[in-house]
Amino acid sequence: MEILQIIWFVLLGILLAAFLICGGFDFGVGMLMCRFNGDQKKSAMEAIAPFWDGNQVWLITAGGALFAAFPIAYAQILSTFAPCLVDFQSGRDRVLSGHRKQAMEVGLRKDLLRV
User: Fold this and answer.
1) Of 41, 58, 86, 111, which one has the fewest beta carbons inside 10 Å?
2) CA 38 to CA 107: how far, in whole Å?
3) Cβ–Cβ under 8 Å, residues 56 and 18
């Protein structure tokens, strides 16, 4: 295996690990949201609002790095999982829009949400 391939594998691993670590914060708060009362929901939404969409940058960057380093693997993965990715994205958008609506109901400042 060439050294450049190893470097790209390490870079992809770091990018995906960063997504899982940073995204876990958002997903964890979202899963616990059903157990919170009004004030706790407001505090939780204010805590994750600045990081909400920024965590997805790690995943997008990993996709770009995969395309740059291994275009055949990127094409195979994307074509195989395209229906799953579309379902995931549409479900994610529905969940996030629900959280945004919930955030507005508990009085989160509008400038923290990029709607």
Assistant:
1) 111
2) 9
3) no
